[in-house]
Structures
1.
Amino acid sequence: MKKEDWDKLLKKYLEGETSLPEEEKLREYFSEDDSKETDKPMTDIFAAFQEMGQLTGPEDLPGRIDTILSEEEYDRKKSAPVARLNGINLLIRVAAVLLLTVGGFAAGMWYANTGSSGKKALDADVLSARFEQASASERIKLIRTEYDKSGENSGMEQVLIQAMNNDDNVNVRLAAAEALFHFRSDPYVRKALIRSLANQTDPNVQITLIDMLVKMHEKSAISEMRVLLLKKDLNPIVRYKLENGVGALS
Amino acid sequence: MYRLARVLLGNQEEAEDTLQDVMLKLWDKKHELSVCRNVEAFAVTMTRNACLDKLRSYRHRNVSQLDTTVLQPVSDRVAPDRQMELTETTKVIHDILQLLPEQQRFILYLRDIEQYEYDEIEQMTGVNSGSIRVTLSRARKKVREIYNRRLEYEERRLG
């Protein structure tokens, strides 16, 4: 087929008018020879689609599902219909509910009287402990649910700053940075976000931080941005974002 | 199903979680599946709906679902340097797909990645063949246009 015919077929493809065999021909044509005068974007796009088509799910997924299913069966057995409550049984249960309610109320009063600093430290400690035991996806979930629940100065900021700066997983660092953005009125958090920019190595986290600092109109971030711009191996998109950021904040 | 979740959500961990949820739901519905006309289409639709729920919850909570995990190279028939380039290109195209409206992304995925026939796509989307072609055309042109612009930008930067 001549080049013009391929161009016609490509046009037909872009119009959504090709059949599957025609699309297969196009895929083959664009994958055959890199040196031939082809359409570079389409060569890359077809190759990328082919790669995506070969992507497989996690190998351990069937095992994970089996485990959950066996637990689910267990749960179902556990939650099988209970025997009808007889009189004494019912009385004991009502008494237990009352005891728990009164006890809970008393505990709540005592807890409130211990002061907010105690609660703050406790919340942060609990979150830290949960963090240590959690997988990366669980840590992200924790971050997203905890910042929703916590108010400013709840002690969560320190845990989130720690995660943003030191977590091994880049998605967790990203989620922590996004959660911290909600505490941006706190000067301590603002400083932590600026300082973190110099420490981050992943372009996505860097870009997220730059966007946040620009949104916060944080002029004191300019010097950190300029320092980062001096790096020779900087990702081009990060460089572009930084240049725009410095421009916007200056 | 995993590939669909990955393309729609743009995030590996969320795709894995969603797939797990869908598989469990399918297990719960195993008795209904025997009367289902097209189990594959049913599973694809279920995965899509689960992904949409997840995307809505992101928007609701204003959470970004940026994926920073590089798509793993899977071809063993290309040279390592070409494979690296291919992996990078695939990541870029994958990111561009995230910029498309959900319907365009879904239809493009079904046709260009999974190579379904139009009547099968009709079954999975409930959209007629004419509209599928229009949506697909828009999606293909958009991906090409964005990728083109990106290549031009890279060329300018590298001088």
2.
Amino acid sequence: MAAHQSDARSERRGQTAEPLVQVRNLTFKYPYEPEPVLREVNLEIFPGELVILAGPSGSGKSTLCRHLNGVVPHLSAGEILSGQVLVKGADVARTPVHEMALMVGMVHQNPDSQLVCLEVRDELAFGPENIGLSHAEIVERVEQAIDWVGLRHAADLLTFECSGGQKQRLAIGSSLSLLPDLLVMDEPTTDLDPVGAHEVVATIKALRDELGLTFLIVEHDLDELLEVADRLIVMAHGTVLYDAPPATLLNTHYEQLEAIGLRIPQHIMVARRLSTQAGIGRQFSIRRQDAVRAFGEWAARSLPRITVGTSLDNGTTEQSQPLATEAPAVQLDDLCFSYGRSTWTIHDLNLTVRPGEFVALVGSNGSGKSTLAKLMVGLLQPQRGSVRVMGMDTGQLPVEEISQRVGYLFQNPDSQLFNTSVAEEVAFGMRIRKAAAGDIERRVSEALGLLGLEGYRERHPFSLSRGERQRLALATVLVADPDLIILDEPTTGQDRKTLDGLIGLMEDWIRRKQATVVMIAHDMDLVCRHASRTIVMAGGRIVAEGPTAEVFQRHYAALADLSLIPPPVVEMSVSLVGVRLPKVLLSIADLDRTLSAREA
Amino acid sequence: MRRAKAGRPNQPLYFLANVRGTSWFHRLDPRTKVAYLAALVMIDLLFLDPRFLLVVFLTTVPIWISSRVDLRPLLPQITAVGITLLSLMLFIFSFSGAVGTSGHVDPGQDSIPLGPLVFYPASFDIGAVQLLRMGIPMLTSLLVFATTDPTAFARALNKLKVPREISFMMVTALRFFPLVLEEYSNVSQAQRVRGAKPRGPIGRLRFFYRMSLPLLIVLLRKSRDMGIAVESRGFGARRWQGTLRTLTLTRRDHLFLAVVAIGALIALYVRFGLGLGWSWVI
């Protein structure tokens, strides 16, 4: 480990400068946790660096971030058992939070929870007003911040009128208006749609290039940020496991990073496979462009041109296939719905989903995905047209009846847990429907066993970890043995292991029960890997739909226009379809099959 | 179709839609509006004769009209004010009449029974007075809040020596309102898709009881996040001096304040100089 840290220091920009942040042997414990959440953490951040802090959920990343601006220990219960944090030489534990605010800005995951004013300019002025600047200085800082985060066109909006991306950029701007030396961002894109996430990442890159600002960013989705980062720090179980430039770390510890559940960007997976399996160079680049170019060169050299009659079946066997003979699981006819405004939220929508399909609903925020999902379970009723789910007309039946055959997993598990024990939570739906006691017990045990929660029967739901709460929420859905399961953005805030476990369960459920899954998702990689069919929505209409490979192949440009950036393997392979590949590659598994086929 | 009505506009702070208006009343300094409200309440309390109070009410009508306020976003608030006033009027009609305007029980009055309620002629008069006394400031407050940016209003309160912590709390509560609504909707829907339905008063109580824990936990987390965000931006420094927007009284404000002052003087003269407006009609 020490070797990696010294590598990092030697390659660091501005290595002669004094560190901006020094964390020395920090061990910290929350009062309600038996073990310390941070254990002997050591790290330094130098001026101008962009540092990514990654690691599985519960590894202590957020707690470490909160130490940097003094929220911990000043505003949070807990005890520093050893060590200290210094920012510009000031001991954070002895410096008030408002003084730390001048050195360290903080941006959180949910933009709505951190905006306190009603107008954009007032929000940006909030910090400068608090620290006693004059009117002229405040105006100057506000206008400066508007330009830094590119909100000039939205400067006269009310904060709740802004899009998700604008709100998060506003949160960044409101920290920047205090002119901090370091900006700490705790999962700044997690709650955003692809458009918003892209806006925020572009803003981070621009701020770094133009202002030379120092960043510490906690992020699960590393696709766009990793290649511009100076360092990647990986934490697990409260300790810093790795601290090195991303390219160095990924080239030397790829398997270890994968094993702890780090979401390694797909283009890096491709670059590594080309490096190890196809023999292109010993070291691989972590830049997306380089990976795309390397793949193109490899394909031109290694894949034969397709001639008429050639069939290279690279298959997508992991995806579920519909049972075409059965009645539709979902049938939408001329569906229209509006929230009372002049425009339709859902407009003239026609759709048939067959049993056994794993359908992904994709689109930007406001495209109508969640509204459509709520129409399917009867939480909303159509104003025109009809929704038939498992043969039931949702306009004619109450939600309680529809929900006996349709399960709905909400984005935030905490919204759907309200009982006092895990077992009670799972049994709730069956009890309320007056199922027999023996039947309830059997089904609860089955569901808890399936989700690996048998040992938690008597625990309070809110005493579980986030991943366990998500599994419990899923158990409350599966216990009813639904024929159709709707997943509303299950990826939010999940690390790769938890996410793969959840989606794996869904695929298993489809196979065993011939059930249907409709998943709202922003993660295009997830969609490509698992969805048998993809429906793209924009402005309340379906703009593209079909088998996932077909949608990503035929509508590649349209998806990019909607900021639904297809995964790198799609980008790499789409131009080769019909020339060197019979169809577009959707996942790393597809790429592996292609590589194996060439080796064979 | 079982329930094919349109959903409500899903804009949580829809009632603030009028804040961006450009009428003369919108452009008044919030302190001027506060002074106007205070004067109106004072004039309101000067009179007991509903005819005089009706005149006071009528003076607010041109302001409503000229402020060009879109009433649709305010309908829930206007309805709430209306229900409050009607309940109050009904209560006063049925219970105060027997006591009479003199404050003593007047057994000689003719009673008008209506089901379980009994009305007296005097009670209508008392009810009308209380209705106008409460209705005028309530509706005018609604107009003031609908046409004033809450942040500017908070700044005006600071200028009027209200502590910053209190005015900030007011604005933050407003900002927090959409989050509460969103979570309420999520938790409620999550229960319904698991088969729970609020049936009858007991069922409703159970439904809301079950909602309380997740709602409380989610909102506590959000309020903690908001608190951290506020402190992370130097709120604890409490060194407020300059502000982004400086409040200045313009010629329009001075003119309106002069009109309000003249109105208040006229009301005082009518009440105390001429001795009118303090006696009940009957």
